[in-house]
Design brief:
Layout (H helix, E strand, L loop, with lengths): L19 H8 L50 E9 L5 H19 L33 E6 L1 H4 L38 E7 L2 H14 L4 E12 L28 H7 L15 E10 L1 H5 L3 H8 L36 H5 L10 E2 L2 E7 L5 E11 L2 H14 L6 E11 L16
Antiparallel strand pairs: 1-3, 1-4, 2-3, 4-7, 5-8, 5-9, 6-8, 7-8
Helix pairs in contact: 1-4, 2-4
């Protein structure tokens, strides 16, 4: 599959500059005629993707390509995830223009460059800076920006086809089912659009979402967002397995970028799948999982290991071996009971318990202060990518019904998004949807 097969050349192309509305968003509401208006002689509408800025230091990943970065890219240490709703007055043209502007700005930021022609410090002195400036002098930080489309972008809650794209909605892109014990907060669930910004520097990830939110002004507004730290899975064999807030290694058996067969089979939407514009893309599931940290911390180590199905230190399966030894669910212990409990997390999440289904996990820890009872508002911001949402649904339904860990967690936020393939230079993410 080549890059050329992923984006229809008949689709509207993205100008290599921010639109006037995008620049007005950067300048803030009510500044028409100030800054943007008075700087016409300086070419303010030419905020090109060659704008100056520091590109030295740190790892950098291209924004344009066959697939969007931030999926099989080696998982960075920090996350800022945001879901957006389109304005009730937004048109199809507004949506296309927003995606063009986001793609242009994302390409700049992934190169370590400021947004806009003038960036944070070189614009009109009497107008707000085009770039917020907190990433000045920082390296690229391995920034990736990944954009997805929610079910309500195609057909809203009232059944309206606001942007003339209902006929192109993937059949599988529907609201996730209600899983047993779900306790979802509507204010942390859903969204027309999402942006996942990952970086090895938290300020760079925040900078990306902050500036893309400004660009969206008047066309889309922030619905909910989540900061994450300490990746909870490895997406490359070059990475060690991290630990989650329960203190256990997480993601030992995750799909890795160095497994092209699994990635092609389980992560990327294939050309034979429908709709055609999603070929080379993936489906993103986000779940905000609250952990009852205080209860877990009072649980005996033996019980913790029984619940997970692995040792806490090495991360080896309770059936024996080392971290990467395949679990043997047939091994029996005392009273002829399986050494790995039939309702342990490892067993229920394993492909053998889910008709072979696998997903690529890319989650993060979060701690958002405490609640009104003084308990930590902490847990796992789970993110997974899969060729079909059914892969996640089958695994999660199995876990939600039987997992011993359910006593210590609550799913309080959720989202499902179609992540289109990457964009070619000169185009924009999602262009194939509008061809």
């Amino acid at each position: 599959m080549t890059d050329d097969s992923l984006t229809d050349d008949s689709a509207p192309a993205a100008p290599q500059k921010l639109s006037r509305r995008g620049l007005l968003g950067l300048a803030g509401a009510g500044v028409v005629g100030l800054g943007v208006g008075v700087a016409g002689d300086r070419g303010v509408l030419a905020a090109t993707a060659t704008a100056g800025g520091s590109t030295t230091g740190g790892t950098s990943y291209p924004f344009f390509g066959a697939h969007q970065s931030g999926i099989v890219t080696p998982a960075q240490d920090r996350l800022h995830f945001a879901a957006f709703d389109m304005s009730s007055t937004a048109t199809r043209a507004d949506l296309i223009e927003l995606l063009q502007d986001w793609s242009t700005a994302a390409a700049l930021m992934c190169q370590g460059k400021p947004v806009g022609e003038f960036g944070a410090v070189d614009g009109p002195y009497d107008a707000p800076p085009q770039d917020t400036g907190e990433a000045l002098d920082l390296p690229t930080g391995g920034l990736t920006i990944t954009i997805g489309f929610g079910p309500t972008l195609f057909v809203d809650a009232s059944g309206a086809d606001r942007f003339g794209i209902a006929s192109k909605r993937p059949t599988e892109l529907t609201e996730l089912p209600h899983f047993p014990a779900d306790d979802l907060d509507a204010q942390r669930t859903g969204g027309d659009l999402c942006i996942q910004a990952c970086s090895d520097d938290p300020q760079i990830a925040v900078h990306a979402i902050r500036n893309l939110s400004r660009i969206a002004f008047g066309r889309a507004s922030l619905r909910w967002s989540q900061l994450g730290f300490g990746r909870t899975s490895s997406t490359s064999t070059s990475q060690v397995t991290p630990r989650n807030l329960f203190g256990f290694k997480d993601g030992t058996a995750n799909i890795k970028a160095e497994e092209p067969g699994k990635v092609s089979t389980s992560v990327w939407v294939n050309s034979a799948d429908a709709p055609a514009w999603m070929a080379g893309g993936s489906y993103l599931v986000a779940r905000r999982i609250r952990m009852t940290i205080e209860t877990w911390d009072r649980t005996a180590l033996s019980e913790q290991e029984k619940i997970i199905g692995r040792t806490k230190g090495e991360g080896a399966p309770l059936s024996g071996g080392t971290e990467f030894t395949a679990p043997d669910f047939s091994v029996l212990g005392r009273a002829d009971k399986p050494l790995i409990d039939t309702d342990s997390h490892v067993r229920l999440a394993h492909p053998d318990s889910n008709a072979g289904s696998e997903i690529l996990r890319r989650g993060y820890n979060f701690v958002d202060g405490n609640d009104n009872l003084g308990r930590l508002d902490a847990g796992l911001f789970f993110i997974s990518y899969q060729r079909s949402p059914a892969q996640f649904i089958d695994i999660q339904m199995n876990l939600a019904k039987n997992d011993l860990m359910n006593e210590y967690i609550r799913h309080v936020g959720s989202g499902l998004f179609a992540v289109p393939p990457g964009a070619k230079k000169g185009s924009y993410v999602g262009a194939g949807l509008f061809s």
